[in-house]
Design a protein that fits this description.
Blueprint lengths: L14 E7 L3 H12 L4 E4 L15 E2 L11 H17 L4 E9 L7 H13 L10 E4 L12 E10 L1 H14 L3 E3 L2 E9 L2 E8 L5 E11 L5 H8 L8 E12 L7 E5 L5 E7 L3 E5 L3 E2 L11 H14 L11 E10 L13 E6 L7 E6 L5 H12 L25 H11 L5 H11 L3 H4 L12 E3 L2 E2 H10 L5 H8 L8 H17 L4
Parallel strand pairs: 1-2, 1-10, 2-7, 4-12, 10-18
Antiparallel strand pairs: 3-6, 4-6, 5-6, 8-9, 9-10, 11-14, 11-15, 11-16, 12-13, 13-14, 17-18, 19-20
GO molecular function: glycerol-3-phosphate dehydrogenase (quinone) activity
Keywords: FAD, Flavoprotein, Oxidoreductase
Family: Belongs to the FAD-dependent glycerol-3-phosphate dehydrogenase family.
Length: 511
C-alpha cells in the first residue's frame, strides 16, 4: 500500500524523489533507471564516478563460470542474460571475447568442464554470443607441452569505467542532478524527508538537498555510511575482499583471453588489453583498511606470475609488470566461507517505519548484473510514488550506443567524414564515445581545429569535451577513466594537461 507522505511527485525544485549516495556502477545504474522512469533523481559521489571498485574490475561482463561449482545457478543465469542486453545497450564499449580454458585433469575432470560449459551455453537464451567447443592447444605453440587440449567459450569485455560514466551521463540527460567530488557529510530524517548535507570537496562549498527516499550505494563504504553518516545500525556486515591485477606486454598475438586454473582451484584471467598489453588477474585477499588506498602486494604479483608461467612457454618476470591496480569487492559477510566462495549476489535492505522516510541500502553485487540490480532497486521503492513509469533499460541504449551495426562500420563512417584525423585516434574515439564522436568533433573540419595536442592523439578539444560533458575534473579522471592514455603518457606531459584542466575549470561554468 502506498504511503500518504509520498503519494505525489516532487512539489518544489528543492525536493528530490531519490538521492543516491555513491557513483559507482550500482549508483550510476540506479540513477539512470530512476530518472528514465520520471523520478527526480540526485547522484553524488565523494570522488570521481567509478574511481574505486567499479574501475578496478577484470573488465568483464561474464556469467561467472566458476559460480556453477558453488551451485549459484540463478546468479549465473541472470548474468548470462545480462551479457546480451549490455551488448546491445553499449556496443561501443562492450564486445564479445572468446576465452580459452586449458584442461588440467588433476584439477577438474573434462566431463565436469563440459557439463559446466553446457549449462553456460543453455541457462539463458543466447542469440549473439557463440557457443563453446573443445580445442587443441599444442598447435599454437604458446602453451607448455603438458597442456594439449582445452575448451573455448564466449563472454564479453567491457570498459568498466566508461560503463559507469555512460550511466551517469544517461541520468543527467534524463534530468538528474549528477555531481562527483561531492561528499555526503550527514543525512537526517526530518518530517518524512531526508535532509542531506553535502560538501563539494573541490570548492569546499557546503549545501543541502532534501529527498523523499535515500539510496545507499556506497559499495565498500555502505556499512560505514549507515553507521557514521546516518547514525543508524547496519543489519549486514561488509566483508572486504581485495582483487588485484597486473598488466604486462602482450603475451602473444592471439586476440583471445585465457581462463587459467591454479593449483588452489581458483581461476585467473589473462585478457588482451589496449592492443599492446595483457591484463592478468584477479586475486581474492581479505582486506582490512581504507578501500581508497588499496594496493597490490609482492605476494599477489608472484602468485599471478606463477600461474601464467605454469601455462605458457614464454615466461614472465616481476620486471615485466608495466602497471598494476587493485580494488576492493564489498561482499556480504559469510564468516564460514573462504574469500573465493562468498556469493557475488546482492542484497537490498529497506529501512523504514510508518513515520520515517525510507532508506534503501545495497550490499554486494557484481558489474555484470548492475542493470538488473538497478531495476530491482527502483521497483522496490516504486511503492512510494504514483505514476512511476515502467523500466525501459533493457531496450534503451547508453549515450553513444545508438548504432545497429558493427563498431568497425562506425569507424569507417567516421574516417570518411574526417579523413584528416589519424586512424588510431578515430578508432579510440569510436570505442570510447560511439556516436558521440560526432558530438566531440562537431566544430572540426581540419586538424588545426582540434587545438593543442598535449600527447600523441590527445587534443585540447577532447579535454574540453570531457570537462563539459563527462564530469571530468582532474588529469586522473581523463587519463585513467575517461580514456586509458595514462598507461602510455610520459610523466613530464602530465603537468601541462593538469595546468590546462585547472585553467579550464576556473573559467568554465559548465564544469
Amino acid at each position: 500500500m502506498k504511503r500518504d507522505f509520498l503519494l505525489s511527485t516532487f512539489s518544489s525544485n528543492s525536493i528530490l524523489d531519490i538521492l543516491i549516495i555513491g557513483g559507482g556502477i550500482n549508483g550510476s545504474g540506479i540513477a539512470a533507471d530512476a530518472s528514465s522512469r520520471g523520478l527526480r533523481t540526485g547522484l553524488f559521489d565523494s570522488f570521481d564516478f567509478g574511481a574505486a571498485t567499479s574501475s578496478c574490475s577484470s573488465k568483464l561482463i561474464h556469467g561467472g563460470l566458476r559460480y556453477l561449482e558453488q551451485f549459484e545457478f540463478k546468479l549465473v543465469a541472470h548474468s548470462l542474460k545480462e551479457r546480451e542486453i549490455l551488448l546491445k545497450k553499449a556496443p561501443h564499449i562492450v564486445s564479445e571475447m572468446r576465452f580459452i580454458l586449458p584442461h588440467r585433469p588433476f584439477l577438474r575432470s573434462a566431463w565436469i568442464i563440459r557439463l559446466g560449459l553446457f549449462l553456460y551455453d543453455h541457462l539463458a537464451r543466447r542469440t549473439i554470443l557463440k557457443p563453446s567447443y573443445k580445442v587443441k592447444l599444442n598447435n599454437e605453440g604458446h602453451f607448455k607441452k603438458n597442456l594439449k587440449t582445452g575448451f573455448e567459450y564466449s563472454d564479453c569485455w567491457v570498459d568498466d569505467a566508461r560503463l559507469v560514466l555512460l550511466n551517469a551521463m544517461d541520468a543527467k540527460e534524463n534530468g538528474a542532478e549528477v555531481r562527483n567530488y561531492c561528499q555526503i557529510v550527514k543525512a537526517k530524517r526530518f518530517k518524512n524527508m531526508w535532509v542531506v548535507t553535502i560538501k563539494n570537496r573541490l570548492t569546499q562549498e557546503v549545501f543541502e538537498r532534501k529527498t523523499k527516499v535515500l539510496i545507499n550505494a556506497g559499495g565498500p563504504w555502505a556499512q560505514t555510511i549507515i553507521e557514521d553518516n546516518l547514525n543508524l545500525t547496519s543489519s549486514h556486515q561488509i566483508r572486504l575482499i581485495k582483487g588485484s591485477h597486473i598488466v604486462i606486454p602482450k603475451i602473444n598475438n592471439i586476440n583471445k583471453a585465457y581462463i587459467l586454473q591454479s593449483d588452489d582451484k581458483r581461476i585467473i584471467f589473462a585478457i588482451p588489453y589496449l592492443e599492446k598489453f595483457t591484463m592478468i588477474g584477479t586475486t581474492d585477499i581479505e582486506y582490512d583498511g581504507d578501500p581508497r588506498f588499496v594496493t597490490i602486494s609482492d605476494k599477489e604479483k608472484t602468485y599471478l606470475l606463477n600461474i601464467i608461467n605454469e601455462h605458457f612457454v614464454k615466461q614472465i618476470e616481476l620486471k615485466d609488470i608495466i602497471w598494476s591496480f587493485s580494488g576492493v569487492r564489498p561482499l556480504v559477510n559469510e564468516k564460514q566461507e573462504s574469500a573465493q566462495k562468498i556469493s557475488r549476489d546482492y542484497i537490498l535492505e529497506l529501512n523504514l517505519d510508518d513515520s520515517m522516510a525510507p532508506l534503501l541500502s545495497i550490499f554486494g553485487g557484481k558489474i555484470t548484473t548492475f542493470r538488473q540490480l538497478s531495476e530491482s532497486v527502483v521497483d522496490k521503492i516504486s511503492q512510494f510514488f504514483t505514476d512511476i513509469k515502467p523500466c525501459v533499460t533493457k531496450e534503451t541504449v547508453l549515450p553513444g550506443g545508438d548504432f545497429a551495426y558493427p563498431v568497425e562500420t562506425l569507424i569507417f563512417q567516421i574516417q570518411t567524414k574526417y579523413p584528416w584525423l589519424n586512424e588510431s585516434v578515430i578508432e579510440r574515439y569510436a570505442h570510447q564515445y560511439g556516436m558521440y564522436t560526432y558530438k566531440l568533433l562537431k566544430n572540426c573540419s581540419k586538424i588545426q581545429d582540434m587545438g593543442i595536442e598535449f600527447f600523441d592523439g590527445l587534443y585540447q578539444i577532447e579535454i574540453d569535451y570531457l570537462i563539459s560533458n563527462e564530469f571530468a575534473k582532474t588529469e586522473e579522471d581523463i587519463l585513467w577513466r575517461r580514456t586509458k592514455l595514462g598507461l602510455e603518457i610520459p610523466q613530464e606531459k602530465i603537468k601541462s594537461i593538469k595546468d590546462y584542466i585547472e585553467l579550464k575549470l576556473m573559467n568554465s561554468p559548465l564544469a
